[in-house]
Amino acid sequence: MEIGILHSHVTIVTLFLLFLLFKSILLFTNKNQLLNKVRTKFKMADPILGVLMLATGGYLLYLYGAEAPTYLWVKLIIVLLIIPIGIVAFKKENKAMALIALLLTFYIYGVSEAGSLTFSKESTLAEDTSDPQPEISMDDQPGIISQNMENVLETGKEIYLAECKKCHGKDGKKGLFKSPDLTQSKLNLEERIAWIKKGKGVMPAYKDQLSESDIEAVAAYLDELK
Ligand code: HEC
Questions:
Q1: Which residues contact 122 (CB under 8 A, 6 or more apart)?
Q2: Residue 137: pLDDT above 70?
Q3: What's the pLDDT score for residue 57?
Q4: Closest by CA position to 87, among listed 40, 34, 46
Q5: Which of 89, 130, 139, 163 lies in disulfide reach of 98, CB 3.0 to 4.6 Å?
Q6: Which ligand 1 atom is the nearest neighbour of the CA of 201?
Q7: What DSSP character marks residue 163?
């Protein structure tokens, strides 16, 4: 159900964006007559898409609950601005306003894709990866090994809280978008690593977002949730 809503939300936003783009092109190329025809013919398109966009988006926001990232709220406010600006822009054939609506729409589309207001996909651990862990050799003291494991789990926890908590919850049981309870997962470490790299359905693939050692760290951390 949630996944369906997420997919419909993306489809609706894409349709809204394409329609806005189409009308803007007509306006900017001074095809006002055609623009008016399109507007009269598809008079209901914007209000319907707008309501659907807000309804599906609002529902997704509700699913996130108190953990909704700030960018989702900013998106909501911007969408509430775009709809009236767009309506007035095409009614009054005002190019500046149409441009604003268009730019704002592209902006929130980008924000949604990147999941951040500044489009930075930064992993919270970017710095840690450039600082390689010391090699563990056969004659290392067990104390050093366990300290290393502690570092890995600490790293794993940070990544978990930054990337995974929003769907899986702090304790692994949140189940947003029907994600399974991670405390009940039967996957072993290897399988979890493979899963996190590939992602599935709504769950993003982390292969290109996180380094190999970050993925291993977060996969190891999942045992701590049990
Ligand atoms: C956007 C939501 C979302 C995010 C973010 C997310 N997951 Fe998931 N995760 C899911 C969903 C949904 C599934 C179930 C997918 C399916 O079976 O189709 C899942 C499944 C899993 C599974 C498989 C569990 C099992 O036993 O089947 C693991 C392990 C997992 N996620 C770990 C993580 C880790 C680690 C992160 C962060 C690096 C993460 N997830 C981020 C939504 C998410």
A1: 116
A2: no
A3: 85
A4: 46
A5: 89
A6: 18
A7: I
Alpha-carbon distance of 192 to 72, in angstroms, equals: 29
CA of 66 to the centre of ligand 1 (A): 20
Per-residue pLDDT tens over the stretch 159-211: 999 999 988 999 999 888 878 999 999 999 999 999 999 998 788 899 999 99
Helix and strand counts by DSSP (H, E) for the chain: 10, 0
Sign of the torsion formed by the C-alpha atoms of 82, 87, 88 and 90: positive
Maximum pairwise Cα distance, the chain: 82
Identify the residue whose tokens are 């290392």.
140
Q: Which of 201, 209, 205 is nearest to 1 (CA)?
A: 201
Could you tell me if 164 and 124 are in contact, meaning their C-beta atoms sit under 8 angstroms apart? no
Sign of the alpha-carbon dihedral angle for 181, 187, 189, 190: negative
Cα 179 to middle of ligand 1, angstroms: 6
Ligand 1: residues with CB < 6 A are 163-164, 166-168, 177-180, 182, 185, 187, 192, 195-196, 200-204, 206, 218
